Amino acid sequence: MLELTKVEKSYDGVRVLGPLSLRVDARETVALLGPSGCGKSTLLRLILALQTPDCGTVRFERIQLDEKSAQSARRRMGYVIQDGGLFPHLTSKENVALMARHLGWSDSRVDRRTAELCELTRLPADALERYPSEISGGQRQRVGLMRALMLDPDILLLDEPLSALDPLVRRDLQSDLREIFAALGKTVVLVTHDVAEAAFFADRIVLMRDGRVVQSGRIAELLERPSEEFVTRFIEAQRSSLPEPAA
Ligand code: ADP
Ligand code: MG
Fold first, then answer.
1. How much distance in Å is there from the Cα of 109 to the middle of ligand 2?
2. Which protein residue's CA is at the shortest distance from atom 20 of ligand 1?
3. What is the residue-averaged pLDDT of the chain?
4. Nearest ligand by distance to the CA of 39
5. Which of 11, 16, 48, 138 gives 169 a disulfide partner, CB atoms 3.0 to 4.6 angstroms apart?
């Protein structure tokens, strides 16, 4: 589905990513985990072809992403960013429908799809006519998710979708999101700096540090067979937030 091979990215001569190789299979849910600044968002932007790697390749469904292939590939990817990234001057519904309108969908098709997504994401219908500043943070993330799903993408990419939310809202949305991922059966790449969140969502955790993959595997593997000391330190530092193992 997605294959990054030896990608590298520098800003102003400073390498922030790579060399990094990563494969994500269809219908897999992968969490990109790592401390702030380790390159998670940069990696996501390379996948979305919003940025190009200095070297190495990104392939989506075996097609290498370049300027020509990027646009059609991006239509098959849904992207949710941390603060929702909604346009403040558009209502929730207008935000959700933006790309579909651009592609010339009819009113009835837009309405049908919006209603479906409202139900899926449990957004109260009255929030649809409001502007982003008139709904709660949790609702904004639901709208952001609806927008990402509008064109029924093959892969969903989420950059710290829950980070800006307070704990209770976060917990609700966490369990809703997990249900939604399961119901959709899509490929999901979720960025987080939170070990418990990564373990809650993902089949596979890709732990990053300084622009590289340190270890990739299930949480149990990272705990039992850490590839280096950093893995244990990173997990232990957030240990108290992990669920207790069953007795
Ligand atoms: P993360 O999402 O893991 O917190 P980022 O991918 O956002 O990390 O950033 C990785 C590094 O790259 C950071 O040191 C950040 O300051 C730097 N960086 C990210 N984007 C840019 C940019 N557009 N210009 C210069 N430096 C950047
Ligand atoms: Mg980031």
1. 34
2. 42
3. 93
4. 1
5. 138
Task: Point out the least confidently predicted range of 75-84, 139-148, 182-191.
Answer: 75-84
Q: Is 120 in the pocket of ligand 1 (CB under 6 A)?
A: no
Pairing of strands 29-33, 204-209: parallel
| Cα–Cα distance, 237 to 218 (Å, whole number) | 18
The whole-model pTM stands at 0.93
Query: Residue 37 Cα, ligand 2 centroid: separation in angstroms?
Result: 7
What are the pLDDT digits (tens) for 43-82? 999 999 999 999 999 999 989 998 888 888 988 999 998 8
Rounded Cα gap, residues 77 and 46, in angstroms: 12
Coil/strand/helix, residue 122: coil
C-beta separation of 84 from 141 below 8 A = yes
